[in-house]
Write a structure and sequence with these properties.
about 300 residues, alpha+beta, D-amino Acid Aminotransferase, Chain A, domain 1, D-amino Acid Aminotransferase, Chain A, domain 2, 2 domains, 9-stranded mixed sheet, 7 helices, globular, binds pyridoxal-5'-phosphate
Length: about 300
Amino acid sequence: MEKKGKVWMNGALVPWEKATVPLLSHGFSRGSAIFEVFGTHKGPDGVYAFRMDEHLKRLAQSARALEMEIAYSAEEIALAVRETVEANEVERGIVKMFAYWGEEAVINLVLDAKLDVAIFVIPDSEELGLDDSEPISACISKWRKLHPETVPVAAKACANYLNGYLARKDAADRGFDVGFLIGTDDFLAEGSIESVFLVKDGVLKTPALGPILSGVTRKSILQAAEVIGLPTTEDRMTAQDLLAADEIFTTGTGNMISPVARFEDITIPAPGPVSKQLMELMAGITRFSDDRFNDWFQRLY
Ligand SMILES: Cc1ncc(COP(=O)(O)O)c(C=O)c1O
């Protein structure tokens, strides 16, 4: 990845290589940082964020769930995002921001300081592969989803991603792109860094909120489906439901929708007709050719 450009750190733009924390910081050594990632898109008259309001709301919810306090308000962070995206002249790309305890904390587990904030803007590249809609393969991970009574799994906290890392590693070791995590209750939760949808008999289905991250793309797909009259359910589902699905896809900020062409040893159409319709709908929205969803975008510069 190209490491250049400016990073917003606690009120100032600093060179990329200066945007660091001590190894002994709480955020790094305890993995307690929280973060958000969202897309930037080139519109007809400027560069826009995709649902920054939703992402900043989720950042605040992550802090609340972990009983932490961020040193900046959502309004201040939104202004900082605008400043950073414009300073880096990024068009299509992603904003990745962290709220973290950046000070050294060797023994202390509970700090009473407010969280620092750092905002990175990363332009699209071959490595990022934004808007890549290539079909993927998926399996059920040997690892279970973190139980929501052990840590708040709806918080986008760095420490929670060991669970996702292991699922992705297990999938890769078995020749799959992504691994789906099943909860200890035997119901499907989500992928490592993606929400999961299936289509059965013309109905779009996804696991209910609670034991999963509240994906902004997930929410957007459900809202878009409603606008086009596609029936949806948010309910419990099992590995058996995936095996019997007509279509499966994952959603997330990077690629929006990734159709699954192989699930375990089953080959499925990818994209199937419903996935294709939703992919075209989302592509139209992010190309600004569908003005029914204009309020999903905030102008950055
Ligand atoms: C665990 C997990 N689930 C789902 C998602 C998808 O969320 P979003 O659509 O907000 O990117 C992510 C994104 O990183 C994630 O980490």
